[in-house]
Amino acid sequence: MITHLAGLWVDAPLAFWLALLAGLYFVVMAVWLAVIDIKHQLLPNRIVFPSAAIAGVLLILAALVAGDIGAAVRTVLGGAVLWAIYVVLRLVYPAGMGYGDVKLAFVLGLYLGYISWSALLWGTFLAFLLGAMWGIVLLISRKGTGKTQIPFGPFMLAGAFILLAIN
């Protein structure tokens, strides 16, 4: 998002401020949700649902103000596509994915879709890679087993954050 913001600053200052506000909101939301998920293994609706609305409005407005209809469409479709993928994962293996993760996927899909389809793909891949690495650390350190439940939200948020930071 940083590279994207640099381009907006020159071409569409209002879009820059909208996208920057969305990015700052992401950081606050991500920290808040990660802490709650680590402590309680819960991603509360009272945070996730408003985050979807706030991110959606700010990012779609930024895209429209910048005259980038493609980014506006990608934002909406990114949220829907990532949500659908997580729904399928939840249906295939309910014990491996909570509903909070499914709802958070929509929000992260909005952000990653706003940037690009490749950001959506790599942000999602990175979330699973980080989660797998943490699982391996737990197994090697004998602090967990193959049945140990770990909160996945922080890995989803970290994967999205890394992609947003480098794009």
Which spans have pLDDT < 50 for at least 5 consecutive residues?
none
Helix fraction by DSSP (H/I, runs of at least 4)? over 70%
Strand content: under 5%
Number of strands: 0
What's the helix count? 7
Q: What is the typical, i.e. mean, pLDDT?
A: 95
> What would you call the structural class?
mainly alpha
Shape: elongated
Instruction: Give the CA-CA distance, first to last residue.
Output: 5 Å
Question: Biggest β-sheet: count, sense, barrel?
Answer: none
Total count of domains = 1
Name the helix and strand elements from N-terminus to C-terminus, one letter apiece: HHHHHHH
| Oligomeric status | single chain
What is the gyration radius calculated from CA atoms?
16 Å
Topology of this protein?
Elements: H1 2-11, H2 13-40, H3 45-65, H4 69-92, H5 99-115, H6 117-140, H7 153-166
In words, what does this structure look like?
By secondary structure, the protein is an all-alpha fold. It has one domain. Helices cover 83% and strands 0% of the residues. The chain contains seven helices and no strands. The longest helix is centred in the N-terminal third of the chain and has 28 residues. It starts with a helix and ends with a helix.
Write a brief caption for the model.
The chain has 167 residues and is mainly alpha-helical.
Output the keywords.
167 residues; mainly alpha; 7 helices
